[in-house]
Structure formats: structure tokens, C-alpha cells
Structure to design on (138 residues):
């Protein structure tokens, strides 16, 4: 049995769905984004993130003739998962009612374009600790 090379493992990890989503999210946060009073992403920002991250969350879903208004980004599991993974990975943190990218991690993510699209294969987020560092030079 052959052991995969470190280069192959790094390349495979960098292509895993959570990694480009976390990179795109961290780059989007940039110097900071205002949060709601309950500490959530605003609905205006959530609308932008659904497209950017390809989470397939549905804002204001319509069932039959009724439209069910989305009241909080908390109702969007794809966005919520990406935000929580970014926090847990140390890519972003909350300070003074704002979500900000952690400078050390932001530098690791800066050179990567948000290569995330939408489609049926783009769903949810798994996990990768310190995601933007995967496959990057130390």
C-alpha cells in the first residue's frame, strides 16, 4: 500500500468544499462586518453570501401561494454553518458587535480567489481546522 504524498494531500484538502467557502467568507469579512444586536449576520449581508458561497439557502421561501419571510440569518443553515466554522477555525472573531478577520489567518487567505460556485453539489460545510492554511506555505 502506497502512502499519498504530502503535496497530493494538501492539494486534495485545498479543493474540499469547506476550504474555498471559508476562504471566500474570510476575504468577504475583510476589515469587518457589522452584526445584528443578537450577533448574527445581517439579512442584507446574508443575501450576498448565499450567492458568493453557493450555500443554496433560500431567503423568503415560497410554499404554494404563501411567502414565508426570513427574519434572521439564523434561519439559513448554510450561512450559519460557514460563520460558525470560520469562528471555530480562528479565521474570524467577534469584537464590539462586528465580525472581523483575524490578521494572521487573513494573510494566509489573502492570495486565494473565492472559487466557490452554486449548484446542487454545493451544500453545507464540513470542517477543516485552520482552513486557509491547508496547502499554503507556512
Amino acid at each position: 500500500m502506497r502512502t499519498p504524498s504530502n503535496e497530493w494531500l494538501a492539494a486534495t484538502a485545498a479543493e474540499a468544499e469547506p476550504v474555498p467557502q471559508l476562504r471566500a467568507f474570510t476575504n468577504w469579512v475583510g476589515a469587518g462586518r457589522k452584526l445584528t444586536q443578537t450577533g448574527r449576520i445581517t439579512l442584507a449581508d446574508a443575501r450576498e453570501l448565499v450567492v458568493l458561497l453557493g450555500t443554496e439557502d433560500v431567503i423568503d421561501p415560497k410554499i404554494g401561494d404563501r411567502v414565508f419571510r426570513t427574519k434572521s440569518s439564523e434561519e439559513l443553515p448554510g450561512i450559519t454553518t460557514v460563520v460558525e466554522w470560520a469562528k471555530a477555525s480562528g479565521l474570524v472573531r467577534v469584537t464590539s458587535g462586528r465580525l472581523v478577520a483575524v490578521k494572521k489567518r487573513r494573510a494566509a487567505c489573502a492570495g486565494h480567489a473565492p472559487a466557490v460556485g452554486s449548484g446542487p453539489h454545493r451544500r453545507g460545510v464540513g470542517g477543516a481546522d485552520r482552513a486557509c492554511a491547508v496547502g499554503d506555505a507556512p
Summary: The first strand starts at residue 33 and ends at 34.
